[in-house]
Each structure stands twice: as structure tokens, then as C-alpha cells.
Amino acid sequence: MQNGIERADSITFDAHKWLSVPMATSLFLTKHPDALGKTFSIRANFMPQEEDEIDRLGSYTHSIQWSRRFIGLKLYMPLLVFGWKGYEETILHQIEMGQLLEKKLVQNNWKIYNDTDLPISCFTDSKFENDPEFTKYIYNSFLETGESWIINYPVGNVFTLRACITNYATNESHLDALILSLNVKRKEFELFTSV
């Protein structure tokens, strides 16, 4: 999943999508430590001009927000509590749940349309892969009940359902409940379209 990452000049990562933090939390990592200083550096005559005074002030010259809200706190605090090791364990668990979901989908005659190490499955029933109403029906059913969050997602010219494991508390019983609901909704669609 990370092969070649060391060749990147910079990496952006939406922490709110995988690290269980509130929306609009992202990381920007770069090999060029002076890039942020050059990008966000602003001189203001009311701020100290001597380098040693600026260093004591912390990040005002390294952040676009200066003294405004500290968005990074949403990630900083969980890192203090769980640490990188805790996040590593969480991510590995989510990957394991993603692999288990894919296995259970295949066992229940759902066809997988993507290949990734990430805990994301794009799937549909091959009998209905040419009928966009199938995935739309199932998506809307889940939207109405709120029992799970899946979306109607195109892979090539096939509309699939996309499930992504992002909750650290997801376990096998949640996956079984999702599979059961998917199978029930598939049967409903079959009955509905056969009338």
C-alpha cells in the first residue's frame, strides 16, 4: 500500500477519513521543511522581527491561521492519548475488517469491482451490474434507515455499492449485520422488479 511513498516530495492525508477525528482535519507532510515557511511567512511590523523572538512565539510564521483557531488540535489531542502505535493498531484492525467484509461479500454472491489493500469494497450483484436502478435502490434503502453508510459509486461503467471501514469500533458482528441487510434488500429488489 505504501510502496514508493519515500519518493514523494509531499503527502496529504485526510485524517478525518481514517483516524476518527472531526471533519476537515488533514496532514501535509513534506521533504522540504522550508516549504511551509516560504509559503506562509508574513512579516508584520507589530510582530517581533528578531529570529530568537519569533522562535519563542512558536508557529505564528508557519501557519496560515496565525492566532486564529487551532484546527490541528483535533488530531494533536488523539495523538497524545493513543499515540502513533494506537493509530497503527486501529488502522490494521480496519484493514482486517475490510478484508473480512470482502470475503463475506464474495461468500454471499456479491461481486467485488476493486482491488486495494484499503478497507474499501466496491461491489454489486453480477446479475444486476447493467441495471443502475439496483444499486440506487439499495443505496436509498440504507439512506432511509440509517443503519449503515454505503454509497452508489461508479466503477468504470458499472454502478456499484461502496462500503468503507472507517470506524475504529467496527467488528465482525457489524459486518454480518451489513451483509444480512444487503441480502434482504437484494431480495426485495428482485421481488419488486419481477412484479
Question: Could you describe the 3D structure shown?
Answer:
By secondary structure, the protein is α+β, with helices and mostly antiparallel strands. The protein has two domains: 78 residues, no CATH class; 111 residues, Aspartate Aminotransferase, domain 1, CATH 3.90.1150. The strands form two sheets. The protein has a four-stranded antiparallel β-sheet with strand order 3-4-6-5. Strands 1-2 form a two-stranded antiparallel ribbon. Strand 5 and strand 6 form a beta hairpin. The model has no long low-confidence stretch (mean pLDDT 85). 44% of the residues lie in helices and 15% in strands. The termini are far apart. It has five helices and six strands, in the order ββαααββαββα.
The helix tally amounts to 5
β-strand amount: 5-15%
Q: Name the structural class.
A: alpha+beta
Would you tell me which CATH topology of the largest domain applies? Aspartate Aminotransferase, domain 1
Principal-axis shape: elongated
Q: Would you identify the CATH architecture of the largest domain?
A: Alpha-Beta Complex
User: What number is the mean pLDDT?
Assistant: 85
Helix content: 40-55%
How far the N terminus sits from the C terminus, by CA atoms, comes to 46 Å
Biggest sheet: strand arrangement = 3-4-6-5
Order of helices and strands: EEHHHEEHEEH
- Give Rg in angstroms: 23 Å
Total strands: the figure is 6
The tally of domains stands at 2
Provide tags for this entry:
single chain, alpha+beta, Aspartate Aminotransferase, domain 1, two-stranded antiparallel sheet, 195 residues, four-stranded antiparallel β-sheet, 5 helices, 44% helix
